[in-house]
Design brief:
- With 346 residues, the protein is an alpha/beta fold.
- The chain has one domain (2-7, 30-333): TIM Barrel, CATH 3.20.20.
- Helix content is 34%, strand content 10%.
- The chain is built from 13 helices and eight strands.
- It has helices at 16-24, 32-38, 81-92, 112-121, 143-149, 163-170, 174-187, 214-229, 245-254, 257-266, 270-274, 294-298, 316-319; strands at residues 51-55, 98-102, 125-130, 153-157, 199-203, 235-238, 281-284, 290-291.
- The protein has an eight-stranded mixed beta sheet with strand order 6-5-4-3-2-1-7-8.
Length: 346
């Protein structure tokens, strides 16, 4: 197919419009919305907002080949203090219980600690999407202590429990740094029974595959990391690699695009579709624009609520039952046991 010749070059990668066009090209699989209708699900709508997800920017100290954000050291998009303050003002007007801070490497944003402190002052549970190596990077060596002090739940990305596969996805030497960072977190009580400091690991498949059964791969991580490095953790979550941005580039350049799409389309699970994370999440971009999820954010697909497109105009009542904007990339979240920022959903 012609789609195999498409290559993304430079930073940022191909435009969101180009990516949507690639995903919409007929290749034998049904349109996602048609698949929802055939399963009797109709149009997806939000069922309230339980997670206030803030993406503070695309700046990161790593350049992972599966990254749906296309984050890296060269990216300049960063949430300003003005927008961060708008986020906290919007949050304060609601009873949304959980704040999920992501990036890039969210800790590199100069407003990260302020956001954590303000959200905790409002009594909200805070989660940090951490790449681990950032905890060793100068001048951020006290980050782990800051997270522990504020009782932040850590979601730590670790693609695999062996260095060869992990480094292939995240860069040479990243696995060893990740192990050191995990040991540091364990030393502060993270992942230790009774500490109240929750440490979760996140597994993304290395290559054009669906993740294995979550319970099975979690058992392998516990055994390997425990025996080799003395590392303990609370939960492991599997996340399907989404066919967008840098992972879409990999699929196209390696000739795996059609095969991967067929794999996730054929694995469509109505139960997973009913439980997709966008139904209880609102995603705020680094510039304050509102999206149903972090994936829609990267494809520049805003929420359907015309009266509340930016966090400065946040309207919890209007957003709580909005129509979810979907596309063929959504097959990634509904394949097999499903995928969300909290792992499998079905």
């Amino acid at each position: 197919m012609v789609v195999r010749t498409l290559a993304f070059r430079g930073a940022p990668l191909a435009s969101s419009r180009t990516q949507l066009d690639v995903l919409a090209r007929p290749a034998g699989w049904p349109n996602f919305d048609d698949r929802l209708a055939a399963a009797g699900l109709g149009t997806l709508h939000a069922a309230g907002i339980e997670v206030f997800q803030i993406n503070v920017g695309k700046f990161c100290n790593q350049t992972c080949r599966h990254c749906h954000v296309d984050a890296g050291p060269e990216r300049k998009e960063q949430m300003s203090r003005e927008t961060a303050e708008q986020c906290i003002r919007a949050l304060a007007q609601t009873d949304i219980p959980t704040v999920d801070i992501t990036g890039g490497a969210p800790e590199l944003n100069e407003n990260f600690r302020w956001l954590v402190t303000e959200a905790r002052a409002l009594g909200r549970h805070v989660m940090d999407r951490c790449n681990l190596s950032i905890l060793l990077l100068k001048p951020h060596e006290d980050l782990a202590e800051f997270l522990a002090e504020h009782r932040v739940e850590v979601f730590a990305s670790l693609p695999y429990f062996r260095p060869t596969q992990a480094d292939a996805q995240r860069g040479e030497g990243v696995f060893d740094k990740s192990v050191e960072a995990l040991q540091k977190l364990n030393g502060l009580g993270y992942g230790r029974e009774g500490s109240g400091l929750t440490l979760n690991l996140v597994h993304n498949p290395v290559g054009a595959f669906l993740p294995p059964a979550q319970a099975s791969i979690e058992a392998q991580y516990r055994r390997e990391l425990g025996q080799q490095f003395g590392i303990t953790f609370d939960n492991l979550y599997t996340i399907t690699n989404m066919p967008i941005s840098r992972f879409l580039e990999f699929l196209l350049e390696s000739g795996n695009f059609e095969g991967y799409m067929e794999r996730i389309v054929n694995a469509f699970n109505p139960a997973a579709a009913r439980a997709v994370m966008c139904r209880n999440t609102i995603s705020i971009g680094w510039d304050g624009k509102l999206y149903d999820c972090d994936f829609n954010q990267m494809l520049e697909l805003p929420v359907s609520t015309a009266s509340a497109l930016h966090v400065r105009d946040f309207d919890a009542a209007a957003l709580a039952h909005r129509r979810i904007v979907t596309g063929n990339h959504c097959y990634g979240c509904t394949a097999g046991s499903g995928s969300s920022c909290g792992g499998a959903v079905a």
